[in-house]
Amino acid sequence: MTLDATSIGGQLQAVAEASAARAITVFVCANCARPARAATSAGRPRPILPEFSWPWPVTQAVVSCAGRLQPEHVLKAFESGAEAVCMVGCQEDNCHYVEGSKRCARRADYLRSILDEIGLGGERLMLFHLPGTAAEDMAIEAGRTADAPAPEALDALAGAIREQVMEALRGLSPDPLRMARVVDADRNSERELEFGDEKYDE
Fold first, then answer.
1. What predicted TM-score, i.e. pTM, was given to this entire model?
2. pLDDT tens digits, 31-71
3. What is the SS3 assignment for the chain?
4. Distance CA 34, CA 49 (A)
């Protein structure tokens, strides 16, 4: 198939638009900022995630506990094109896995040192906490009333996280990995255009 300058121009425009988008990946604990609930043998209920109302599409991954996030998960997100990665876990004193949120914080510190070392910058990894549900779930199990934050309060907390992420993105320098991908795509398109012109002239 012959590639002409118009189709190449469209591809380059798409690459430019993609490079301008603020791609982020958000890992969210399934137990934070949700209504309290009793355990059931009928299987795990579908997670209820906080409503961040991002102004652009984001890659959002639900994890059973933020403490289960491994360094390779976060680094793979950056390798896949994320300009920034957010880890959202429960408050450290209300984690279902007791040490999960603390473990997540330690890994975030470790990963920031790696990002600084490879030149991406540790500020591209952000860690946030939302109210956990361990104490509230246990209260329901014991037949007591769960004193959980109101949905409006949770929405406000999620909105505050969104604003902090947007402010951080405004201060970030261009992502060298994304810039390298755009340059590579540009070079590949130029090669395709040259090949297409040769075929067209024949």
1. 0.73
2. 888 877 776 656 666 777 888 999 988 999 999 899 999 99
3. CCCCHHHHHHHHHHHHHHHHCCCEEEEEECCCCCCCCCCCCCCCCCCCCCCCCCCCCCEEEEECCHHHCCHHHHHHHHHCCCCEEEEEEECHHHCCCCCHHHHHHHHHHHHHHHHHHCCCCHHHEEEEEECCCHHHHHHHHCCCCCCCCCHHHHHHHHHHHHHHHHHHHHHCCCCHHHHHHHHHHHHHHHHHHHHHHHHHHC
4. 7
> Which band of pLDDT confidence, cut at 50, 70 and 90, is reported for residue 197?
very low
Which burial class, exposed, middle or buried, applies to 56 when counting CB atoms under 10 A from its CB (0-12, 13-18, 19+)? exposed
Q: How many whole angstroms separate alpha carbon 108 and alpha carbon 69?
A: 10
